[in-house]
Write a structure and sequence with these properties.
This protein is of the alpha+beta class and about 210 residues long. It has helices spanning about 5-20, 75-85, 95-105, 120-125, 140-150, 170-190, 200-210, and strands at about 30-35, 40, 55-60, 65, 90-95, 130, 155, 160-165. The protein contains 7 helices and 8 strands. The chain has an 8-stranded mixed beta sheet, sandwiched between helices. The longest helix is centred in the last third of the chain and has 21 residues, at about 170-190.
């Protein structure tokens, strides 16, 4: 896909996420790996609902800012995912309400913060492990993400929110939306007897819908 089309796609997805309440204010950021090398990323303090395709940040293959507005201060989270997931084409980080609420709970299963209650969570996320709390902007958080990213498409930052990768921007956004919907279902079902997918059912899904 041409860079100009990717720029437009970032703006379209950003507006959609903002309009549906998944990205408020200037929170959240997205990036896409370019075929010719380097990345496009949303700028720092930018509202995802009002992205200007021409002003998106451009980074070289090493993550250095080479064009457009100054990139998000959380660029290191994206680079950590790309470094450990060479087939990842895009990364999305949001502060969506239900997922962030999950990230604030005590007693979470650090190996997978959400239960396997739908096949779509397994198909689009797999497992979402918990990354310990770090101050926003602390680059040590990038190393903590990198430790888990090699084996996981998505991670949950404690008291902060999810970071999700995908082979394309569409795939990363759809996976993020699935994670948020699963988090919403998790709260709706709390206190109820819930039928979780069995180990055999999860294995069958993974065999038929392998994650990249």
């Amino acid at each position: 896909m041409k860079e100009s089309a990717i720029r437009e796609q970032l703006a379209i997805h950003g507006r959609s996420l903002y309009d549906r309440g998944l990205a408020g204010g200037s929170a959240g950021n997205m990036s896409v790996r370019l075929e010719e090398g380097g990345f496009l990323a949303t700028p720092t303090n930018a509202c995802l609902g009002r992205l200007d395709p021409a002003r998106l940040s451009k980074l070289d293959a090493g993550g250095r800012h080479v064009g457009g507005d100054k990139p998000t201060k959380e660029t290191f989270l994206h680079l950590a995912m790309y470094r450990r997931r060479p087939r990842a084409g895009a990364v999305v980080h949001l502060h969506c309400t239900h997922a962030v609420a999950v990230s604030c709970l005590a007693g979470l299963d650090a190996a997978d913060v959400l239960p396997t209650i739908t096949p779509y969570y397994v198909m689009r996320i797999g497992k979402c492990p918990l990354v310990p709390y770090f101050r926003p902007g602390d680059e040590a958080l990038g190393e903590a993400v990198a430790e888990l990213a090699g084996d996981h498409r998505a991670v949950m930052l404690a008291n902060h929110g999810p970071v999700v990768s995908g082979p394309s921007l569409d795939a990363a956004v759809y996976a993020m939306e699935e994670l948020e919907e699963t988090a919403r279902l998790f709260f709706l079902l709390r206190g109820h007897d819930v039928r979780r997918l069995t180990g055999d059912e999860v294995a069958d899904l993974k065999a038929h819908f392998p994650l990249s």
